[in-house]
């Protein structure tokens, strides 16, 4: 959960899809909140890709309550989660 507004904001579900393809595919869906904000989906996708590449097969539920949806904010969230290995 990352929030600038004091509430949960948009809740996203991200998972790695297993299949016969050589390269994995990832699915990100908005469970609740803003469905028209591509930066939130991109943030969730980057996180699930990194988590999966580190060996975890667990899905991700992510809550983002943000005022600022800029690329810099998203990069900060992703790098903080990766740095602290919060999974």
TrEMBL record:
One protein family per Pfam: PAC3
Cited InterPro entries: Proteasome_assmbl_chp_3, Psm_Assembly_Chaperone
Membrane spanning residue stretches: none
GO biological process: proteasome assembly
Top-level taxon: Eukaryota
Protein name stated in the entry: Proteasome assembly chaperone 3
Protein species of origin: Rubroshorea leprosula
């Amino acid at each position: 959960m990352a929030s600038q507004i004091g509430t949960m904001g948009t809740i996203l579900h991200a998972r790695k899809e297993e299949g016969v393809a050589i390269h994995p595919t990832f699915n990100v869906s908005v469970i609740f909140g803003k469905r028209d904000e591509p930066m939130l989906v991109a943030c969730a996708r980057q996180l699930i890709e990194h988590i999966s590449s580190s060996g975890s097969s667990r899905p991700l539920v992510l809550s983002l309550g943000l005022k600022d949806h800029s690329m810099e904010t998203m990069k900060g969230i992703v790098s903080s989660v990766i740095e602290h290995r919060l999974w």
